[in-house]
Amino acid sequence: MKITLISVGKIKEKYFVDAINEYVKRLSKYCQLTLIEVADEKAPETLSDKEMVQIKDKEGERILSKIKDTQYVITLEIAGKQLTSEGLAEKMAHLALTGQSDVVFIIGGSLGLSDLILTRSNFALSFSKMTFPHQLMKVVLLEQIYRGYRINKGEPYHK
Questions:
Q1: Is the CB of residue 40 less than 8 Å from the CB of residue 109?
Q2: Which DSSP symbol is given to 39?
Q3: Domains of the chain, CATH where assigned
Q4: Is 95 helix (H, G, I), strand (E, B) or coil?
Q5: What CA–CA distance (Å, rounded) separates 40 from 10?
Q6: 10-39 pLDDT, tens digit each
Q7: Which helix (H) or strand (E) holds 141?
Q8: 145: closest CA among 18, 31, 7?
Q9: N or C: the chain end with fewer CB closer than 10 Å?
């Protein structure tokens, strides 16, 4: 299975980079993983609704340029569907069984995802009603993908 994780913004903190690298290493035996970071738009503290949409659209265009028409897109959204770890594992297994083995996960920037991306999404996934920094969410998502593979293979993993 091919997994691509597209996120807005660069990870600068060493502890996040180290955690991401650890999961990249762990996942290498289960899937072909590609991490793509697209540039985030610099935004002032106060924005009009129109400016917010423009910034999200610019980031959205960058994300869309990295997605192929044949890829199954899962966006991380607060309003998405919440799954258990087992539920995500089932989702991944089902995608593989139905020939959708090229999956893209998308983590938006600080303002969220543009309508361009929300429209392209095949499945909206929520980890919580809370907002998390995209750097931390990248680590959590990779951990859950790894956990999903372990569950699907019947391999032990701490609960």
A1: yes
A2: P
A3: 2-42+65-153 (3.40.1280.10)
A4: helix
A5: 8
A6: 999 999 999 999 999 999 999 999 999 999
A7: helix 134-153
A8: 31
A9: C
